[in-house]
Prior knowledge:
The chain is an alpha/beta fold. The protein is built from 24 helices and 17 strands. It is elongated, with a radius of gyration of 32 Å. The model is unreliable at about 1-10 and about 385-395 (pLDDT under 50).
Amino acid sequence: MTTHDDARTDPDLLLKAVQKEEAATHTGKLRIFLGMAAGVGKTYAMLNAAQKERAASVDAVIGYIETHGRAETEALTVGFERVPRAAVAYHGVTLAEFDLDATLARRPALILVDELAHTNAPGLRHPKRYQDVLELLDAGIDVFTTLNVQHLESRADIVETITSVPMRERVPDSLLERAGEIELVDISPEELLERLAEGKVYTEERAEHARQHFFRKGNLIALREMALRITAERVGQQVADYMQRYQIPGPWKSGVQLMVAVSASPASEPLVRWTRRFAFALDAPWLAVYVDVGRALSPAAEQRLASHLALARELGAEVIATADSDVPGALLRIARQRNVTQIVVGKPTEPLWYALVRKSPLYRLLHESGDIDVHVVQSSTTKPRPLHADRLAGFLTPHVNEYLLTLACICGITLANLPFLQIIGYRSVGFIYLLAVLLLASVVGRGPVWLATILSALLWDFVFIPPRFTFSIHGGQDVLMFSLYFVAALVIGNLTARIRSQDRMVRKREEHAVALYAFVKEIAHCEGVDHTVAVAIRSIGRAFMAHVAIILAQTHERLADGPHPASTLALSEKEYSIASWAFISGKEAGRFTQTIPSAEATYFPLRASQRIVGILGLQFSEDHRLTLDQEVLLETMAGQLALVIERETRTDSLA
Length: 655
């Protein structure tokens, strides 16, 4: 049994935190002034902050500012050098736009670029202003910019539902992750409405229309709540990154984050739904965590587990899978790494005697949770049983051939030792049985090991220990020797089986790491999008024994008319429509998912840092869904592929 150190740091999370910090040192810093709506004073706050930077001898330059004629805002622009705007002719009108090339040529330390969500005039290098900002950051230039909450991609549809005003200008949420600092510019809805009435937001004609539609008090309250929550979420992520970077044990209860333990048990589905309702009530992020203890699952259990994790993902959870023989320790390790404040687990269904004989994992979780709150939830669909069927099924999971091998081995040893009993003595037979149990434990599961232990002890007593052919033992030394044999065989056999199980987990992780390394190495040496996609199709098809189709995004709103020519999976009109739905919704669809499971293939969005760059479709040669490990591997491969496609697409557009 391996010992577990709760304070140990997940190397992947630590590497991610270090990479994020190092990346920030090689690019410009982004500071976003966020507000609930126009008129709250974002541009004023940005200029005021820039004046402080300028006073500290920072080379700060105005790239694009909209003062909307406000005298107090215009006054703050005095003293700044301005990058001349680019004149762009559009439908007979000359538009003054932000000049990216002139800024790159001037190369200031800090540039002020107002209205991040603005759509550029046709003819400029990038269709969106936020793409100009990204290029400035990549060039090492710091950027101050402004943004209204309704323009965030994840909030735009919600705002449209609340206000009935369509949100055409949107920016990806990944920009918030790129920002080193988000400053909330906040005033009360009453004060904003007063500013609107005074003409400090729009002209008189526009102000009246805005008051009747977007600027209703209820709308502004909802928008203000969104802005506050986004800022709080961002600060919470910064806290988690800081704790991970400096290996500070959690949790810090500066915010609420939930985690639910998921297994193959039928009780996990209502538990996931309960956690989703609880997270919704608290408006808190939540994780769904599965701990693989190395025990083989039956096909039915694998299907249930995959369904539970898919449900959690569909309901908005971040799904995490980890391998560890110590379930409570693994849950607490992840909880402390991710600054989880509350853990949700199911109420045990075993009787009291079972929990006492076998130390309850729930007891350990409660005892060792420290500052983390634990919710023990009773599933309304789960009835108590003397011994949980899933545990028994997991214990009996090894194939029947393993039990037959165990029976044959123990019976064979018994028959082989009978002729030599007088020569070697009955005590030596016990050591032979113990060696057999140890060897069996290296090739069979825990169930067969228990069978070998019990059967060998009974046969040793009945056939070899005097008086023979009875189950009674007369000598005190023989009683002690028999008792010690039974305990030693059981402990050694279980330890060997557990080591074998852990070795299997390590080998599985190593295989996936090698497959991922080979995939990343292959696509890293590709030149151009077409070459990258062709290599990816071949590699993914080989890794998962599947027919593969990749459909690239033609624009932000639609896919190309068909799969890439290198695809090995042909798509019918119906299958293409399913892929299009997956692209628009950003969710998995097709076979083995909750959306159109009757499809022939499964479709996965290729999500890059800024947008979805295409769809990956897989039709598996065998009629069963991927295991959890395979899903994690595929998700990682898809993420790497999406980032490479995004990079190559950007390079091609600049060429």
